[in-house]
Every structure is written in C-alpha cells, then in structure tokens.
Amino acid sequence: MKTKFANGMVTLSNYVPNQEHKEKAVLAASNIAGISRVQDNLILGQKSADVVEAEKAEAEKPGEEAWESKTYAVKSGDTLGKIAKQFYGNAMEYQKIFEANKPMLPDPDKIYPGQVLRIPE
C-alpha cells in the first residue's frame, strides 16, 4: 500500500485483496494522531498471484459471509456494550465490534471519543 501525508490528510492508494483489508486500512489510518482526513484511493481486486491465492483461500473457508460493515465515531460516555445495543439491540454483542477492530483496539474497555470503529453486519 502506498501512503502520502500532507496537511493532516493521508492518502491511501494501491491494490488491496478485499473489502475487509480496505476497511481496516482506512480505519487504522483514521485513528492515527494528527490525521484529520483519510483519502481512500484503494482499489479492490488486485490480480497478482499472491492475491489470487488469497482470494481462493478466502473463498474456500466454510461458513464465511461477505464482509460488510458500517463505521461509528465514539462519543463521550460510549462503551462497546452501549454501541452494540444501539446497532444490534443487545449489549452482549459487543464482542463482534471488538473482533472487527483488532488490532487497532487491543482492549474492549479502552475506547475514546473520536475513535472510529467498524461495525460489522
């Protein structure tokens, strides 16, 4: 992946193998101190031999669903449980959000206002 940084904005470009990788790259960049904006120029579906093999392996995983998610900007007073209740109707579903945001979120109890989280479907 190629990155450029200027005036608080980072531009991400190049090919990524799938939507999950794209979302994680944008999420990681948006949570770096000093970054106020992320320009996403990432392109899905690079067809190099490595990516073709990765896609093949991904497609062969049983029970895997297509990767779709939303994002949510953490507000003061939020917890993963509170966010899970808002999106899923059940605070105990916080683990889905936690897993979708690893490794940027190493502890489910340590979120902060302004942090952008992926909310998987």
From TrEMBL:
Q: Which InterPro entries match?
A: Bact_Kbp, BON_dom, LysM, LysM_dom_sf
Broad class of the protein's primary localization: cytoplasm
Q: Which residues form the LysM domain?
A: 70-119
Q: Which residues form a coiled coil?
A: none
Which GO CC terms are listed, alphabetically?
cytoplasm
Key word RNA-binding present: no
UniProt keywords (A-Z) are: Cytoplasm
The chain positions of domain BON read: 1-46
Q: Where in the cell is it found?
A: Cytoplasm
Q: Name one Pfam family in it.
A: LysM
SUPFAM superfamilies linked to this entry: LysM domain
Protein name listed in UniProt:
Uncharacterized LysM domain protein YgaU
Tell me the organism's taxonomic lineage.
Answer: unclassified sequences, metagenomes, ecological metagenomes
